[in-house]
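The step that takes the researchers longest sounds almost clerical: writing a folded protein down as plain text. Below is the pair of lines this work produces for a single protein:

——
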Amino acid sequence: MSGRNIDNDGDSEHRNVSTAGLLLIAFFWVVGGIYGNEPLLSAGPPAYVFGLLIVCALAYALPMSLISAELACALPYDGGLVAWVDEVCGKTIGAHNMYWLWLSYIFDSCAYPVLASSYVGSIQQLDLALLGGNEETGEKLVACIIVGLITLIKLGGTDYIVKASSIFFFFSMTPAVIFMVYGSKDLKPSVLTDTTISDETGGLQPATLFSWISWLYCGYNSLGALAGEVKNPAATYPIVIAWLIPISVITVGWPLAVSISVDPNRTNYVPGHFNDVAAEECGEWLKYGFLIGAAFSFVGLYNAQIIVCERSVASAFEPMIKRYLAKRTRGPIVRYLLTENGTGVAPIFIISNALLAAVLVWLPYDALIELAMLVMSFNMFLFMYAFLWYKWNRPKMERPFNIPGGFIGGLIVVFPCLAMTGVTTYFAAVDPEPIFGMPYGKAIGFAGVVGAGFVAHFFWYLLRQCLGLDLDIADNDGETSPLLQGGDRAQLHGVSVQQPEVDAAQ
């Protein structure tokens, strides 16, 4: 198959996410702030933690962001990872990849409204039990309110999402920056380079250490989710990466360094301990600043993660919707729900994901996050494969941002990402910790999730056969796929497609 040259100018009306806007949204994909990262310090000696933070930023986050940038600049499709894997692997694997990505992000996103409501509930002047009869129910109701408010913002349009992200960023980062600057005078290099493993200061938990850092940096594969809405992707993505990597390392590592210098006893680091350290270092007022900052950070994280859910599903089903709307005139409500009007995707995808999120927030969020990380490993492997496939099969494809070295260069970049994903997947799969009362719950839950996808795919096939549904769209090679491919996808997003000469070697 020949490569495709993509004109990155695209449709200016559809592409309304600026460099600053993508950077703000991406911040909550990959970092979101220091809040809730206390278990990272308790997982190992400071030298191990900070060393792995830096190594993984260079060997895991940076390669992943470079891969996302190359594909997003060359093939700026809505859905990013979903669209690329579908084009490379075909309709069956592409559909399962979309399902796994959507499932992992919907599980992950639903934890954040609950965490935000728990931080709000920890403010002494507020009694959330008044909302639901007890504090836990009150927190869940607040989580549902947060989901509803973010949904209204999203229905207002992509511009409102960017503006909201800037507000979340300001209020979440301000307390952390104050803590970093004020606490820098107390940094202790001897503590930061400590490698002692003991019961008094804390042991070593390699599974938690690798899983947590992998979780911190895994969001870099989401950078392509808004590729179809970004203004001039070829110029935007390199700038975003250049800022995002150092910002993520500094905003995580610096507060951790200050905190462990103030309180070197790692056994104290349970969720919420940063608030106590902030109070000890700067005063009680900053403790309340951390509570407010954490709430805004978690709301921003939910907003960013749910965007991936919406774009991944929309990337799969928008072609069907367009054919459905083209057949006959529809009512105003149906047309509104199924038509993108500055919201990035059709409102039906925003509303349906929000309704599901409002249900999932009532489940144990910690178990959902652990399961989500294991499910996401499939997406990571397919993402790497799709990148290498393009390098090998389309060497002449125009790449405004190109990782040098061709296929060999691609292999070198991919290797550390595959290694990190493999290590994290292994630790998660062999973890005997029960989930929902089941030993080895992660592995069992993962098998159940994958099995459910195949069952759903089978029934979808039977439904199409019984009803005679024709929901696929033919690509240029005559094959069918539930997702738009090649020129069809590019035309949908206002991107011009040119067919270069086929390489003689092919």
